[in-house]
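sorry for the late reply, my laptop died twice this morning and i had to redo everyting from scratch. anyway the thing you sent over, i finally got around to it. pasting the sequence first so we're on the same page, its 101 residues, then the predicted structure underneath. double check i copied it right bc i was rushing
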Amino acid sequence: MPKWDNPETRRLFRAILALKNINEAKKFFRDLLTKQEILEFGKRWQAAWMLNKKIPYSQIEKETGLSSTTVARVARWLNKGKCGYKLMLKRISHHHKSSSF
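ok and here's the structure:
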């Protein structure tokens, strides 16, 4: 299996960092991903947000439609991953003082 951190993925990450607003992000990700992939990533991000708020797995599964396996995987990366979820959750909490997703 190829390494995920390679020149191609670094070029992708640089392209993502060059996006200036949500409209640009929507256009780019819609060209890059299928609608289903975007929906799946959105559900995983929602699960990370909910897990961070200590919402029970069963409620997360019900609200997102994700499997228990996927919710557990998101929880594992949230708690023992590269801290990417935590970084972004902290960053958006400073920009949005709302308690809702």
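The chain has six helices and no strands.
thats about all i looked at so far, will dig more tmrw
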